[in-house]
Amino acid sequence: MPQTPWWDRDRHADRRGLLLERNRLKAALRAWFGAQGFVETEPAALAVSPGNEAHLHAFATEAIGNDGTAQRLYLHTSPEFALKKLLAAGEARLFAFAPVWRNRERGALHSPEFTMLEWYRAEEDYSVLMADCAEVLRLASPRGSLRFRDRQCDATLAPERVSVAEAVARHAGFDLLATLEADGTPQPERLRAALAGCGVAVAEGDTWPDMFSRLLAEKIEPHLGLGRATILDRYPACEAALARRCADDPRVAERFELYACGVELANGFGELTDAGEQRRRFEVEMAEKARVYGESYPIDEGFLAALAMMPPASGIALGFDRLVMLATGAPHIDLVRWTPVP
What single string gives the DSSP state of each residue in 202-253? Predict the structure, then answer.
């Protein structure tokens, strides 16, 4: 039997309590950021580049000028480029509840359109973001409990901070850093051998990032954020994305992810401000995207120019809809969005 549409009165009545909780949480977070001296911004959704990560897929469109000339633009997959340009412009603490779009993503925890809560702190270490995360979780659940399916997390407890290497040793039984050279260069055959020893199946053509992703999904993530939240810190440098390398070990980067109830909620960085290094990373990612998917996205030259002017900063992106899901115990992302994507 076909499901009734989301605008059916009875179905909306069933969801309305969840949606009002969404509003409560957004108001509470806005008040908290305001009290911390943050400025709320509204980044444009249309961009010359949607982001340059190999496995993120964007929605493309055309902007028609007054002379009829068409320009290819994209709906952004994150407001990150725009917000970092504002850091370069002189903003010191800023945040946004930004609608974002990601193609090829649909499921209980994924929607093609969702809301990203993103915030930045100029001249502050990325560890401060971890304290922010603890406060965000507390605001999400005044009663202290976050839930997803049969998993629970106590939002009143400080998150456990564990490095990726520590988590791999604990749950997969091998030394992840031994699969990297001293400068952080990944050695795929070393990781392949380690995964064979712990029962993670890999394909012949898998790259080091492919295998690392399977390792996380199968051996690590199911153990994270159970009972208390987990901050999974110090990602391998080859998985740094837009984060800078750690000063004490070039094999790892100032990147962490926040997990609660086994669900990834946020991705935080000590931000890279080396425009040349960032360009190199983007080019590597787009070459991989072209190899796997037969397409690539342009690089936002304005972003790289702004990056060279940006102060040292830390920043984080949190999936707001997922946070609402955990705060309410909702089993599907569509239940906590006022108007789900068709």
Answer: --TT--HHHHHHHHIIIIIGGGTTSBS-EEEEEEEGGG-TTBPEETTEEEEE
Say what the pTM is: 0.95
Q: Give one DSSP letter per residue of 84-103, joined into a string.
A: HHHHHHT-SEEEEEEEEE-B
Strand partners, 72: 62
Pick from 58, 115, 95, 91: nearest CA to 306: 91
Read off the tokens for 146: 């976050």
Structure tokens at 244: 């800078």
Cα angle vertex 316, ends 310, 317, to 5°? 120
> What's the chain's length in residues?
342
Element (H, E) at 327: helix 320-328
- Cα gap 237→246, rounded to integer Å: 9
Q: How many other CB atoms sit within 10 Å of the CB of residue 337?
A: 20
Cα separation, 85 vs 294, in Å, equals 30
DSSP alpha helix (H) spans, 65-160: 80-89, 127-140
SS3 78: coil
pLDDT in tens, the chain (342 residues): 568 999 999 999 999 999 999 999 999 999 999 999 999 999 999 999 999 999 999 999 999 999 999 999 999 999 999 999 999 999 999 999 999 999 999 999 999 999 999 999 999 999 999 999 999 999 999 888 999 999 999 999 999 999 999 999 999 999 999 999 999 999 999 999 999 999 999 998 899 999 999 999 999 999 999 999 999 999 999 999 999 999 999 999 999 999 999 999 999 999 999 999 999 999 999 999 999 999 999 999 999 999 999 999 999 999 999 999 999 999 999 999 999 999
Considering only CA atoms, which of 143, 160, 195 is closest in space to residue 174? 195
